[in-house]
Amino acid sequence: MRIFTILLLTIIFSGDLFSQDVVEWRGLNRSGIYPDQNLLKSWPESGPKLLLELDKIGNGYSSPVVYKNTIFVTGRKDTLDVISAYETNGQKKWETPYGRAWARTFPETRCTPTIENNRIYMVSGMGQVVSVDALSGKLLWTVDAQTIFKGEPHRWGISESVAISDKAVFYVTGGEETSVIALNKVDGKLLWKTKSLGGVRAYASSVIIEKAGLKLLLAQTANDLMAINIENGEIVWSFNLVKYHPGETGKGANTNTPLYFDNQIFLTSGYDHPAIMLTLADDGRSVSVKWTNPDFDNHIGGVVKVGNYIFGSNWITNTTGNWICADWNTGKTLYETKWFNKGPIISADGFLYCYEEKSGNLALVRPNPEKFDVISSFKITKGEGPHWAHPAIFDGKLFVRHGESLMVYDLKNKD
């Protein structure tokens, strides 16, 4: 591991890096929106100041998270998925293997840790759901869910970052025995399993929403979006996704976490699958289609809602795509623009952070519904492979992972 420290990192990183009780995939409510404010409004040509660089963290496409002044990141080493914990000055605290890595195409880790009350929850590339002590790195429990529940992964493996409630860890198995399971957070014992709706698992991570007193897990298989009562595993409603897919390429490859706001559920996947906006009924027990948009087929980069607009990128081929904006209420495409390539997107302090996946260009962008409005950009040059890992922001720091490298940049506005 090479460590580059700039200035006194113990001072730069002082204070809790994130005040939420839970840290997880794509921030608050898995929305891609981070709460940080007073961030830089533009960047130097070379990008924001580099504070820290970590190497040899293990190969992966997962995002780092920060919890109680510690950086946590997963990576593949040999045939195992490992999680590593680093001090904010770059010193490694511990490293723990937590399961078998995916062994076929794209074997790199995809699971971003979910952390609450000093416990980490994850799933390995081969479907082992685990809990690890965040302070010591001790493996607390492991459940080989893929084997026990006869799970069926899609062709590119498992990409889920597990969701949690106050009692449970949720995991999408796919397959004929069950579609989704809930495990006790304390000991990993089975709390419930849903009936099976059939079909293999998808690549998307789930999210919990609340409506009319119901707490619902929105989970996806290759065929369906399901709303599951988190208390008992009842599938309250399901919505068939695969029937909207126009062809065989990428069929069932549902890739993105549903985005929920004000009784609306936004769904998007690549491969010419149209984006779909669903309206949730007042009692939470059914949905109806509000609109579809054939332009907004986001591949694996996620989307964000800023104001009344949805921003992201779309799929042209597996290696090409454009940046796009649509109206949240009507679904109308407002612009579609080529800027290098498609890729991940997040938002903080009223700005977009767009990270194209092919060459590693990362831009600060105004959320302008009329055009793709780049303010500043620079290029990530460290690391190898596709730039698929979603960036993250904690305490005014931008965390960018590329392969086995992790870079931390200072976004705080000192003016």
TrEMBL record:
InterPro entries given for it?
PQQ_b-propeller_rpt, PQQ_rpt_dom, Quinoprotein_ADH-like_sf, WD40/YVTN_repeat-like_dom_sf
Superkingdom to which the source organism belongs: Bacteria
Q: Where is the signal peptide?
A: none
Name of one Pfam family that matches: PQQ_2
Pyrrolo-quinoline quinone repeat domain segment(s): 82-333
Under what name is this protein listed?
Answer: Polyvinylalcohol dehydrogenase
